[in-house]
């Protein structure tokens, strides 16, 4: 006899297996085609050689230095840009005068694709850290700004009125009602911003850098090390996935009250 | 009258218990010549109303007659463009901590547990006081849950606990039972009546359900075109049964609201 728990475990394993079936099959086919010589190593290295390149770069320590450099840039830019976007949104969400003054200017700047500023930024900052951090900050600020502002605007006015009748005002009103009410939307902005953060970093690192994963990829291309090029693409994907997973985790723990995010009991 | 006696016994025992004597006392409310305008629209015109301390007043009227605005004026959520509101003898300016409002929707914060929602009503957020208030409405066992898992009636009971936890002297009820099903409504009416009898705050209930007004109130006022057009004292013993006395009040108020003439006095009606 099988216990229901064992059966649950089995169906769980089966569903995970189904999810991973196609990715595993693709990698296996890719390896097979490569090792049969049907795909040239110069065009697309096999998964095994990518892995090998990864191990080599881990051994000599370069990989962690590059990942560290990229992550540091990404997060400094994110904190600066996100902080500015968040602060402006709070200000404009709460003070009509401030909104009148700044919102339309912000919306105008928003329509500029921030990556189009790269030539200008190289001229301003050279290929140093500042330019890349500036670009990331610029790219991240807008999704955070827009979603935070939208979140504050969409807080139920009935709840705010209720809070006022119970004597909540100023910061207490913000902390008890406005901020938690805006939080679902703020977290949507956070996830958008994380995506933009990595894309901006990839582009700016491939164009101008002397360290980081983008630099690693461009450098490898110069020497035709295709395995390292593919490795850096995989690392970007993993970093993107990791930050998205962290944002999801935040949603789960901060929005426990929300029926959408509650896990089935 | 056994029932009336037991009710007054409850009042006496509760008043003896009440700490400091500040609580469990209704406030007297006076509205003088109040005019409330929204832009060009005059919602309340020259409204005069005097509510003695501890009275249960019901305000009835058709939608858009200004009855909710009257309640919001008493709550301090609207300001009179002319005239004055005084609560407890002092001119009222804005929101007061001894005046609580229950809205048509419960307005619980979905990100706070049931208990934490009630704690908003206590200054300093005392847990045991909040839990006591939840016991009062029979929901102490749901204290840790999110409001989203409660039924509509339970949410309104939590809102009632939140409104009563600070022992208000004036409770304003803006159609709080309007969205509930018939059976839950009756239970909620009984709960509100019981708590009012125990605590003797002044209560103002806005409703368009005339039967609910007659079931709960000492006095029913009818608001038409922004002013009070009828003022009826309900002289029925509590707890109220839907007997002939009840239906007399109910039908006479309803006829007045709808502008119908009662059949028995239909003397100058047109005949064909």
From TrEMBL, chain A:
The chain crosses the membrane at residues 12-33, 74-97, 109-127, 133-152, 173-203, 223-242. Keywords: Cell membrane, Membrane, Transmembrane, Transmembrane helix, Transport. GO terms for biological process: alkanesulfonate transmembrane transport. Gene3D superfamilies: MetI-like. Coiled coil: none annotated. SUPFAM superfamilies: MetI-like. PANTHER family: ALIPHATIC SULFONATES TRANSPORT PERMEASE PROTEIN SSUC-RELATED (PTHR30151:SF38), ALKANE SULFONATE ABC TRANSPORTER-RELATED, MEMBRANE SUBUNIT (PTHR30151). This is ABC transporter permease subunit. It comes from Paenibacillus sacheonensis.
TrEMBL record, chain B:
It comes from the Bacteria. Coiled coil: none annotated. The keyword Translocase applies. Gene3D superfamilies: P-loop containing nucleotide triphosphate hydrolases. Residues 29-250 form the ABC transporter domain. Transmembrane segments: none annotated. Pfam families: ABC_tran (PF00005). Keywords: ATP-binding, Cell membrane, Membrane, Nucleotide-binding, Translocase, Transport. GO terms for molecular function: ATP binding; ATP hydrolysis activity. This is ATP-binding cassette domain-containing protein. It comes from Paenibacillus sacheonensis.
